[in-house]
Specification:
Layout lengths: L5 H11 L2 E3 L11 E3 L1 H20 L4 E4 L8 H6 L1 H4 L4 E3 L6 E3 H8 L10 H10 L23 E3 L9 E3 L6 H4 L2 H8 L5 E10 L14 E11 L4 H18 L7 E5 L11 E9 L2 E10 L3 H10 L5 E3 L4 E3 L2 E8 H12 E6 L3 E6 L10 E5 L5 H12 L4 E3 L5 H11 L3 E5 L1 H6 L1 E6 L5 E5 H12 L2
Parallel strand pairs: 3-8, 18-19, 18-20
Antiparallel strand pairs: 1-2, 4-5, 6-7, 8-9, 9-15, 10-11, 11-12, 12-15, 13-14, 16-17, 20-21, 21-22
Bound molecules: adenosine-5'-triphosphate.
The site of adenosine-5'-triphosphate has 15 residues, from strand 9, strand 12, strand 15 and helix 11.
Length: 457
């Protein structure tokens, strides 16, 4: 586990420009965060890496980019309109609102409450004297359900006919396009269809920074296969998801699979597992991987009236494909990656540095260009111009060279290129490695070749 306190590391992310509180000058808006110049680079890098692994390097798969607003019947078919519900209860004394299952899990981490209904959760709370984390009281309301979808209206009138929802997940854009995609790509099963974009949930329990937000980015894949082959593919994608997390540089000991118990499984799911990461605040779900059987396509076929079955040319059979869904929140991947990368290191007797050991391909800037003196500005800018056509760069000419190295260490820049007076004579520069702090001398013309192999995934 990270040896650092969550507040300390997140404070570093905020002060250095990875993340800002949303609408901060107006006092913020709870559970909303904006990515700053550094965080937005990391976000793009991780999304690109995911697209590469799950589409470019997976020949069975394709990607789409589906709309956020969908026909409201979609959410009737999925059950979100009626059952997208959390078991909520309020403390009558201090008026704070909590999710019943989370309240219990916090105070009784070993309790097995998976599969309990609302009444049983309430009994547990009363019988075990579960306390309000805010005021210590035990005076709770009964559990109430709450719809987490954000509602808005299409057009000028705000009547019930014009209601639309902001999608609470990206997956449905795939299911409703299933026929279009098979027809236009002329693909056969198995096929994985990926969709990335914003999802919205009116979460009521405040999250640990970007772990739980009201507006977040999901990256989902729906992998359709022949019934009976589903568990094989479930194992296959489970492994690939873990490989992806390893590629982000995450330490093995901070990762685990949490298989859902049979009682905990949704009724339509044959198997579900979560990849969990040990955040500084404890274990948290990062990636959910589920065998959803033929549930979603069948529901949409019923609600839309469009048959969504598949004709298998190899066996001449018609069936509704089964679906494996690895669903991941990009923001949680980023938070995990940043927490994992943060370190503080002693250097010599009385010096230390903050360093973000980000995998180079994920770093916001791949290289910093540092002129030893302001007089070297022209040459240094020339070097930056050359490098910036290949990779993200940053320029820094203020403070001592030691201070500038520290600044780059603290934001994870893997390489610093220093331009000095010798550069003017022989066109060579110094390259310093963030992790080893070793320096070597190279010709400017060799820089691109030297750095490219190190900084691209
Ligand atoms: P949780 O139990 O933490 O609420 P969930 O089981 O509802 O999560 P899913 O519906 O399975 O989550 O969504 C898939 C993934 O989307 C999650 O593994 C997580 O990475 C991400 N995700 C879900 N809700 C949020 C949120 N409010 N903020 C950020 N990411 C989220």
């Amino acid at each position: 586990m990270s040896k650092f306190d969550f507040d300390k590391v997140t404070n570093h992310f905020i002060t250095s420009g990875f993340l800002y509180q949303g609408s901060e000058i107006y006092g913020g808006l709870s559970n909303t965060w904006d990515y700053g110049p550094l965080g937005s680079e990391v976000k793009r890098n991780i999304e690109k890496m995911w697209w590469k692994k799950f589409i470019q390097e997976s020949p069975t798969n394709v990607g789409i980019d589906a709309a956020i607003l969908m026909n409201p019947k979609v959410w009737e078919a999925t059950g979100h309109v009626s059952t997208f519900n959390d078991p909520l209860l309020d403390c009558k004394d201090c008026k704070m609102r909590f999710r019943a299952d989370q309240l219990i899990e916090k105070q009784f981490p070993d309790a097995d409450i998976a599969g309990l209904n609302d009444e049983q959760l309430m009994d547990f709370i009363r019988n075990n004297d579960v306390k309000c984390p805010n005021c210590g009281g035990t005076n709770f309301t009964d559990i109430r359900k709450f719809n987490m979808m954000f509602k808005t209206h299409i057009g000028v009138t705000e009547d019930s006919k014009s209601v639309v929802y902001l999608r609470p997940e990206t997956a449905q854009g795939v299911f409703v396009n299933f026929k279009n995609i098979l027809r236009t790509t002329r693909r056969k099963l198995p096929i994985g269809i990926c969709n990335v974009g914003k999802a919205f949930r009116n979460e009521i329990t405040p999250g640990q920074m970007t772990f739980r937000m009201r507006e977040f980015t999901q990256m989902e894949m729906e992998f359709f296969c022949k019934p009976g082959e589903d568990l094989k593919w479930f194992d296959f994608w489970k492994k690939r998801c873990l490989d992806f997390v390893a590629d982000l540089g995450i330490k093995k000991e901070d990762l685990r699979f949490r298989d859902h118990e049979p009682a905990e499984l949704a009724f339509y799911s044959k198997a579900t597992t979560d990849i969990e990461y040990r955040f500084p605040f404890g274990w948290g779900e990062v990636w959910g991987i589920a065998d959803r059987t033929d549930y979603d396509l069948k529901r949409h076929a019923t609600y839309s009236g469009e048959p969504l079955d598949y004709f298998d040319p190899e066996t001449n059979e018609k069936y509704v494909p089964f679906c494996i869904e690895p669903s991941v929140g990009l923001d949680r991947l980023i938070l995990m990656t940043l927490c994992n990368a943060y370190d503080e290191e002693a250097i010599g007797e009385n010096d230390s540095r903050i360093v973000m050991h980000l995998v180079p391909s994920l770093a916001p800037y791949k290289v910093a260009v540092l002129p030893l003196s302001k007089k070297l500005e022209e040459k240094a800018q020339e070097v930056q111009k050359i490098l910036s056509t290949y990779m993200t760069t940053v320029y820094d000419d203020t403070g001592s060279i030691g201070k500038r190295y520290r600044r780059q260490d603290a934001i994870g820049t893997p390489y610093c290129v220093t331009v000095d007076f010798n550069t003017l004579e022989d066109s060579s520069v110094t390259i310093r490695d963030r992790d080893t702090m070793q320096q070597i001398r190279l010709q400017i013309t060799d820089l691109e070749k030297y750095l490219s192999v190190k900084v691209f995934y």
